[in-house]
Fold this protein.
Amino acid sequence: MKKTSFGMVGGGLGSFIGDVHRHGAMIDDLAALRAGCFSRSREKSLETARAWDIPEDRVYGTFQEMADRESARDDGIDFVTVATPNSSHYEIAKYFLEKNIHVMCDKPVTMTVEQAEDLKRIAEERKLLFAVSYAYTGYPVIRQARRMIEDGIIGRMLYVRAGHPEDWVISSVPEEPAGNLPWRFDPNVAGESLCCADLGTHAEQLIEQFTGLTIRRVLAKFNTWPAYLPLETNVTALLDLGDGITGELWASQIAIGKECSPYIYVVGTKGALEWNHEKPDILKYTELNGPTQLLSAGRDYMGAESRSITRVAAGHHEGYFEVFGNIYRPFCENLLALKEGKAYEGLSYPTIREGLNGMKFIHACVESEKRGNIWIDL
Ligand SMILES: NC(=O)c1ccc[n+]([C@@H]2O[C@H](COP(=O)([O-])OP(=O)(O)OC[C@H]3O[C@@H](n4cnc5c(N)ncnc54)[C@H](O)[C@@H]3O)[C@@H](O)[C@H]2O)c1
């Protein structure tokens, strides 16, 4: 089978997301990890390379050295996965794009809207692929919902409610200051937002991918607990989704009882659709005045797109590794088509366009809060 090859910047042993990318990228045998600069510490990078079977001569001390040397090799990597903290995404992605290496970057894609626009421009000018790993949009039933909405099954959309509540801040950060906090709490590394950039943008992309709608304006209210933190830990936002459709978005890191619970509920004139990460293989569909049906990923009654990214039989539950795989799979298939000079007609995946929308959403929420909770255009 034809494969792409890739390298990773960040994501070394002990990091949160690197190994998830590694599993997701390799799950369909379309990508092989061949190089890396997994940490700023060479020792940690080498330790990761040994664990992941990467030859020492393809472990680099800096991402610049990796891009320079890999782009000069005949068998150099096709793409790079950027799995470092937020503040370095722009510099790293830009450097690899300028060496004509395709990019898979984690979210939030940059620190500012302008940086995301710049990356979009460079990728487009050089005809390079740029994916953004908005993981939850990879669940097969999200594709099914989009198909049903496009087929008019729930009629004209009227209202959307989505969210991404977790409890990780309230469960791990002391109520009073007590020593150093991880990078996510530092505006110089995380950016102008904590909760919106960490979780809100996942909910925002869930809305876009599930419904096909784009957020036009937001009115946001931030809350911060523990109160001494420099950035918000709870976001409540009203959304204008165009065509008179109103949305509500809640992102929280202080939601006791919620470990990782993104959800979405969409009401139309003829029915409603609902999804919750707590049962990620199930799409709830209710026809107006009818009983609620539970549509299960992998069943024959699901559409072709949804079934094409379901790997296990219905009821066997796919999860986080698989949804990363569902972003890597179309990205790698697109890349293989590009390398062979063929047109790509496969599934879509979140790109730098969605990454840019995410940055516009985060910035608009921050502006709304700063300016007294007013409506801000995206
Ligand atoms: N898509 C998702 O569901 C999801 C989930 C978690 C995190 N993320 C995102 O992934 C990114 C990383 O988050 P994390 O929680 O894994 O962080 P982390 O702190 O656990 O790991 C970051 C890794 O990057 C390395 N690193 C930092 N700067 C580097 C550099 N210049 N060169 C090489 N290595 C470098 C660190 O040594 C560490 O191994 C963040 O942008 C975060 O928002 C996305």
User: Anything to note?
Assistant: The radius of gyration is 21 Å. The mean pLDDT is 97.
